[in-house]
Amino acid sequence: MSATGLANLFNQPPLNQYRVHLFNDFSSFKAALSETPFFSLIYSLSDEREERRNCLVAFREMSLAHGAIQRIVMASNEIEARLVSHLSPSRLHGIISKSASLSSLQSELATLLSETRRVNDNMLNNWNVSQSRMLSPTERAILRYMSSGYSIPEIATRLERNIKTIRAHKFNAMVKLGVNSDVGLLDAADILKYLPATDPRRCLIAAQIYS
Known about the structure:
The protein is α/β, with parallel strands linked by helices.
């Protein structure tokens, strides 16, 4: 969804009660934040892992420095929504898949935006988490080691576990993240580094309520 498409989304009821500001990067948003009292920040992704990492970094920073501002992710599809949900280092107010119908997008955004200043624990935030448990600390550790190039035997040595146990944890992580190959798992593992990309292509939407 382009910036124009996102702007049009907010030009229609019930979202047209909000004043939206579009930003191409997080630094521009932070500069505007000093002058504008935004209550919600929506990060629109486009299915690129560098972008996911930047999103997670930005929202972690927001949760620490501006915890009162609502944080919503618009993922490209259900798979990306699942990855972000499982790997986010900070709690989110909502995760929405842009593959949903236009009416569903509008309805879900309207519901989330009406819940200002409260971390949303309802089904809109956890629709994908309800299908499976979050990654365990051991599963996260295995993914971190994989992203650093360690083999399964080396990871087993590092974690002082046997190889069969490490493989079982790896399989569980794949099931939870909805991936079916080592390539997909490494994609998720890479996100855990939380390293910002050098040239992200993203769209940030900051919202105000019309007075």
